[in-house]
Design a protein that fits this description.
The complex is a heterodimer of chains A (about 350) and B (about 700). Chain A is mainly α. Chain A contains 14 helices and eleven strands. The radius of gyration of chain B is 40 Å and the shape is elongated. The two termini of chain B are about 75 Å apart. Classes of the chains: A mainly alpha (about 350), B mainly alpha (about 700). At the A-B interface, helix 5 of A face helix 6, helix 7 and helix 8 of B.
Chain lengths: ~350, ~700
């Protein structure tokens, strides 16, 4: 693939700039005690589950993974342990060792869908690995290793020279649907992949990261939007997948956040997010991929801070004051908000 | 000294503790397995359960039971005990939480076989540690994640503090239990086994539910012997009567009878001398029949059959009669099945009982009764509807077409139409065709094709009926569509009657078309009625007296011939027609036609052929005679073992008339005799698609023949 060589170089540069160990060393209290208290008050059930109220009060493996990561970044071992206890006993039930993605308080059994969601699996593994090392907890590291192995074993799909992250183990591969394989680039938690490479050196994590970046470049060319669609069919050239809104939307808005948190500073990759993602007032645009037109706007600070962080990293323009203080709203934007703030706090203090 | 409260039995620490309420509980553990299982890695494979834990430790429980109330006060100091953390035990005792207390004693006994529980767990309360108490409180409330949090929080503020290992162990086991139960609830059986084998202390009589779940996981992952071992473990070690009985009930649907019998062999006598499983013997026999229903080859014990029959006769549960009905349906004994389904219906007339009865009737070639019985239940569910439609298809496929009351025909037509059932639509096509209503027949074949575009028999029927009504373009259209996909469709109309039998015909099919169209203005039922009326007109003169036909005029002889045909006296009819043959014109032609019908009815096809050639016939009649001749020829050839000729006759017949299901079956058997298994199977399958029982039997015969060959 023509673009690939360039992005391998980019990746290498990114990894050199921010080796994961240094990131981890500076992570303690990257989320402040006050921020975490606000967050957990609203989204953490005492039983250890992160509640997505906007989606009917369910919990999912993604939320549990974010909960682990944020409690780790807040240095709160008690909350970390209870989130992990819930995740382990309630959701790590699949035969293959991955997490069932959806836990619904209203159904019996609570696992209402046993499929996995690979971003959840990645986030959980990542949180466990970081905490295991920082807190000298071999039990956490061992669990991280076993989930990483399960992901490598059945969560990936190699197509040509690309290593793909299957969004879920069933339903997305070439064999499962007409326009398969279908991927979601926001499931590539780029910052987690070097950590997984340390956990499990013989896994294809570097190729996975490279493939994600390659696909990202290609997917920005699927329409007038010049932004990646949430769900992408890779049956032929990358194109918006059938059965999903053909939009740059809630999923894909995480991509630049993950890139930046992974230490990526490649301007050509990040620039479109600084320029095309926000409207003039800094709100995040949900964009029709084909026409490039705005479908609606996301005003929550947790969304707005993402293009603001990209701009700051690229040009040094500080993040707006109103986004610098954290007020919990909904689970998802609030999570993104803390991820952005904590990263700026540790790695780009000039942005605050 | 050994405290009287506890008597240790066996080598692996099987103990019995009598609790204050006099409720006995046996608390063995399969701790001895832990090493074995851990070494095996793969989850209780091998004989871990049976081979290690169970050896020698299954002492009779009753002998060791001692009632608590009778215990003398125990001394406060006992034999030197290992250093056992009794924090949890004392905590549960203090809270009166007997269930957890029991479980904790079982766990500690498993860990420390020489340890004996304190007489009075409340005697020595540990020194106050309110924070730890709080953790135990959370634990006993099942708030496991919050215990984790409390431990971590305390360690954050008191870096030197270490949680008691007892707490950590209990917590880990309780979490493993939750994970196992959750995995079991969503059928993730590998996970269940993985967790069970990594946490052997879960597998105790104190928590039989976990053992049941592990056993089920084995059974559901095709490791039935391991499942059996797990159930056997319970029965050899655990004493609670209700759990023992429930173990058999859990195993019932999951184990083969052979393995189940091993479980039943552990039966103990209850105080009143009965076997402890006596109450569920009936269920066991019922399961046996249910297994036999899913596997027609399974041979079950006569005792089971007799037991369920006795239950059905005495207890009066309709479900028992149903079990027996289904059993006999699957054992090709529709008469017995019918009898049981009728009994079930007497107890409780239900859709299922009616469905079974209808099936039993269809299998006895009594589809009219089946249709009648099942009609009111036709909407109950998909299965019932399928059987109803099979009854319809079988009823319509009877040769010659039976007289059907107009309302019955009408309701069948409605159901076939509503269900878009291609098979029955095709049969309606043949039915209409047999009643000389090719236009109606063509419509049904067309519908069947709309509903099932790849249905070759319907396409063939459509081609034939179009040919009969003279729609040559329509025939060509179908022939073009099916070129290369059907052998017989391209041959439709190839050899007309004029060139084969009659040879001097004047009337082509086209000339019939207007008459046929008027026929088809009405539905098949009305057509049938009119046809019967037509026949009745011909017998008006009466023929009951014995008359020498030679004395009659040719016209009178002709009338008498028809009359005798109606009276089913074909040989005399043939003689009467012979006289009429001396007549001229229409009388002569009718006589030739009548005589050939008479010889056919008398089973003399060769003479029928000769008669048919005595006068020219119109297309209708020549087709009728010719098809009957060929049919008869095919059957005779088959009876005489000339199978190639059978097929040739059927082939020729199929060019001019549809091959009804019965003839397809005949053709299938001819192929079978010629060992053309693929051809036989194909034709039986096509015929079976119409619900024909004979065709199903044919399919089975092909299978048997193939196996013999193999």
């Amino acid at each position: 693939m023509r673009l690939r060589g360039r992005f391998i170089l980019v990746l290498a540069a990114g990894m050199l700039a921010v080796p994961w160990l240094s990131q981890q060393a500076s992570s303690a209290e990257a989320v402040t005690t006050a921020e975490w208290a606000l967050y957990k008050d609203k989204f953490l059930d005492p039983a250890g589950r992160i509640i997505d109220a906007a989606n009917g009060g369910i919990s999912h493996s993604e939320g549990q993974g974010y909960g682990l990561l944020l409690s780790y970044l807040a240095g709160n071992q008690g909350d970390f342990d209870r989130i992990w206890a819930f995740t382990r006993t309630e959701m790590m039930v699949r035969n293959d060792g991955l997490a069932a993605w959806k836990w619904d308080p209203a159904t019996v059994p609570h696992i209402s869908d046993t499929n996995n969601a690979s971003d959840g699996d990645l986030l959980i593994t990542y949180g466990l690995a970081l905490a295991g090392t920082a807190w000298h907890r071999p039990d956490l590291t061992a669990s991280a290793k076993s989930i990483a192995a399960a992901l490598a074993d059945g969560g990936l799909e190699t197509v040509g020279d690309l290593v793909l992250l299957k969004p879920g183990k069933s339903g997305f591969a070439a064999a499962d649907r007409k326009d398969g394989p279908v991927v979601n680039l926001s499931y590539w938690v780029f910052e987690a992949l070097p950590v997984l490479a340390q956990l499990m050196p013989d896994g294809p994590w570097t190729q996975l990261a490279n493939s994600g970046r390659t696909l990202l470049v290609a997917s920005m060319k699927t329409g007038q939007a010049s932004l990646p669609p949430d769900w992408i069919s890779l049956k032929t050239v990358p194109a918006p997948a059938d059965g999903f809104p053909k939009e740059f939307s809630y999923n894909a808005i995480r991509i630049p956040l993950y890139l930046i948190r992974a230490g990526d500073s490649d301007r050509t990759l990040l620039e479109p997010f600084a320029t095309r993602m926000p409207d003039a007032a800094g709100q995040v645009r949900v964009v029709d991929i084909a026409t490039g037109k705005t479908r609606h706007l996301l005003a929550d600070a947790g969304y707005r801070i993402i293009p603001a962080l990209v701009s700051c990293v690229l040009s040094g323009a500080p993040i707006g004051k109103d986004m610098q203080s954290f007020q919990p709203t909904d689970y998802y934007p609030s999570t993104l908000h803390l991820l952005a703030l904590s990263y700026a706090r540790r790695h780009h203090p000039e942005c605050l | 000294m050994k405290p009287p409260l506890i008597i240790v039995a066996g080598i692996a620490g099987v103990g019995v503790m009598a609790l204050a309420n006099g409720h006995y509980i046996n608390l063995p553990s399969i701790l001895a397995n832990i090493t074995a299982i851990a070494q095996q890695g793969n989850a209780l494979q091998g004989n871990a359960l049976q081979g290690n834990a169970l050896q020698g430790n299954a002492q009779p429980v009753a002998a060791t039971q001692v009632a608590a109330q009778t215990n003398p006060p125990a001394p406060t100091s006992t034999a030197p005990s290992p250093k056992v953390d009794e924090t949890a035990l004392r905590y549960f005792a203090s809270k009166g939480d007997t269930k957890r207390l029991e479980a904790e004693i079982a766990r500690l006994k498993a860990l420390y076989p020489d340890w004996t529980p304190p007489e009075d767990p409340l005697a020595a309360r540990p020194q106050g540690d309110p924070q730890l108490d709080q953790m135990w409180k959370l634990y006993s409330e099942g708030k496991l994640a919050e215990v984790r949090k409390a431990i971590a929080d305390r360690q954050a503020t008191q870096p030197d503090w270490q949680p008691p290992s007892d707490l950590l162990d209990r917590l880990a086991v309780a979490e493993a239990r939750e994970q196992l139960v959750n995995a079991s609830d969503v059928k993730q059986y590998d996970t269940v086994i993985r967790i069970g084998s990594a946490n052997s202390s879960l597998l105790t009589c104190g928590d039989v539910d976990v053992l049941w779940r592990v056993a089920e996981a084995f059974a559901r992952t095709k490791r039935e012997d391991r499942a059996r071992d797990a159930y056997l473990y319970i029965l050899r070690n655990c004493a609670k009567p209700e759990e023992r009985v429930a173990t058999i009930q859990k195993a019932l649907p999951l184990l083969s009878r052979q393995n189940l019998d091993q479980l039943l062999a552990t039966e103990q006598k209850t105080a009143d001398g009965k076997g402890e499983f006596a109450a569920i013997r009936g269920d066991i026999a019922r399961q046996s029949l249910a297994n036999a229903d899913t596997d027609p080859k399974l041979v079950i014990a006569d005792a089971d059959l007799a037991a369920v029959q006795a239950l059905a006769n005495d207890g009066g549960l309709a479900s028992d009669d149903l079990l027996l009905g289904w059993y006999y349906v699957r054992r090709d004994n529709p008469q017995s099945a019918e009898s049981w389904f009728r009994k079930a219906r007497q107890k409780e007339n239900s859709a299922k009982a009616s469905q079974g009865l209808a099936l039993a009737l269809i299998n006895q070639s009594r589809p009219a009764e089946a249709e009648d019985i099942l009609y009111q239940w036709r909407d109950a569910d998909d299965d019932v509807r399928k059987v109803y439609l099979a009854a319809v298809a079988n009823l319509l496929a009877i040769t010659p077409p039976p007289p059907l009351a107009a309302p019955v025909l009408q309701r069948m037509v409605q159901e076939v139409y509503a269900a878009k059932d291609a098979g029955s639509a095709q049969q309606l096509g043949w039915y209409a065709d047999a009643l000389n209503q090719p236009q109606t027949a063509a419509q049904w074949f067309k519908l069947a094709l709309d509903w099932k575009p790849d249905d070759e028999p319907s396409a063939y029927g459509l081609a034939l009926t179009r040919w009969k009504i003279g729609d040559k373009a329509g025939v060509r259209e179908i022939q073009a569509q099916w070129a290369g996909r059907s052998e017989r469709i391209p041959t439709v109309g190839e050899r007309s009657i004029q060139t084969t039998v009659v040879g001097r015909g004047r009337s082509g099919p086209r000339q019939r078309a207007p008459a046929a169209q008027t026929d088809d203005q009405t539905d098949a039922g009305a057509g049938k009625a009119r046809r019967s009326a037509g026949r009745a007109r011909q017998q008006s003169s009466g023929c009951s007296s014995s008359v020498d036909p030679v004395t009659l005029s040719t016209e009178a002889a002709l009338s008498r011939g028809w009359c005798l045909m109606q009276a089913n006296r074909p040989v005399e009819a043939a003689a009467a027609f012979d006289v009429a043959l001396h007549g001229r014109g229409k009388t002569h032609a009718d006589a030739a036609y009548g005589q050939s019908l008479a010889y056919l009815a008398a089973g003399l096809p060769d003479m029928a052929a000769v008669s048919a050639a005595k006068a020219p016939m119109d297309a209708d009649r020549s087709i009728e005679i010719r098809t009957a001749l060929l049919e008869s020829q095919a059957a005779n050839a088959f009876d005489q073992g000339r199978y190639v000729e059978t097929i040739m006759a059927l082939d020729e017949r199929s060019h001019i008339a549809p091959e009804r299901t019965g003839l397809m079956v005949l053709r299938g058997y001819a192929y079978l005799k010629l060992r053309r298994f693929d051809d036989a199977e194909q034709i039986f399958r096509a015929a079976a698609g119409t619900g024909s029982h004979d065709a199903l039997k044919g399919l089975n015969d092909v299978k048997t023949a193939r196996e013999l060959k193999g």
